[in-house]
Amino acid sequence: MSDISVTEAIVRSGVVAVLRAPTADAFAAIGDVLVEAGITALEVTLTSRGSLEALAGLRRQLPASVAVGAGTVLSLDDAKASVDAGATYLVSPVYVPALDGFEVPVYPGAFTPTEIFNASRSGAQLVKLFPAGTVGPRYLKDLHGPLPGVRIMPTGGIDIADIATWLTAGAAAVGLGSPLIGDAASGGSLAQLAVRARRAADAVAFARS
To answer: To which protein family does this belong (predicted)?
Structure first.
């Protein structure tokens, strides 16, 4: 994928599934369930033990149209290791200047209007609003007044029931972690994960209909 096509794949998905757990052992099975339900953007967080191996496995097993990236990328070393494992994009909770102009799209985290503006000026095609749940969709609407050209991906503290509200407020996509993944990474029901994933995909379709 080109940089633009990776970003557009994330926007089309509407939801980025954030895979974070003490261990990444179940990420392969989780990835299959999510993609089958229509969620085609996955973020493997580097804080999960075995994350790079899991990321490489997901890239091999899932269709090439699925955007598989690395999350919680905080350094150039993190970025290089993630790309070596097959990451097609990188996400950080903060803006890391060392990643400007990196070889795959980097979506930095920001919170205040100044941070969001500066992250966008770095060349980021998406800026991660984090932690989004502390402010809500109204904050996003207010940001789009002075910053209409910045594509924002709210993440953190968002529930499945909130997806449509964020998207209609102008979010390019939303990031969901535990409200979507639940206990699936620690032996929980994959069938229930599928139900949650379909609800999330349906919320995206509803918001865009």
So the answer is: Belongs to the KHG/KDPG aldolase family.
CA–CA separation, 21 vs 168, rounded Å? 30
Domain that residue 136 falls in: 3-208
Question: Token digits for 27?
Answer: 């990420």
- Cβ count near 101 (within 10 Å): 8
Two tokens at 173? 């996509």
Helix 27-37 / helix 51-61 crossing angle, nearest 10 deg: 40
Taking the complete model, does pTM exceed 0.85, yes or no? yes
Please check whether residue 68 is in contact with residue 12, taking contact to mean a CB–CB distance below 8 angstroms. Answer: no
Average pLDDT, consecutive stretches of 10 residues, N- to C-terminus, the chain (209 residues): 82 98 97 97 98 98 96 98 98 96 96 96 96 96 94 97 98 98 96 98 97
Q: At 97, is the secondary structure helix, strand, or coil?
A: helix
CATH number of the domain where residue 173 is located = 3.20.20.70
Q: Nearest 5 degrees, angle CA 111-CA 20-CA 150? A: 30
Among 43, 53, 115, 141, the one annotated catalytic: 43
Residue 128 among the catalytic residues: yes
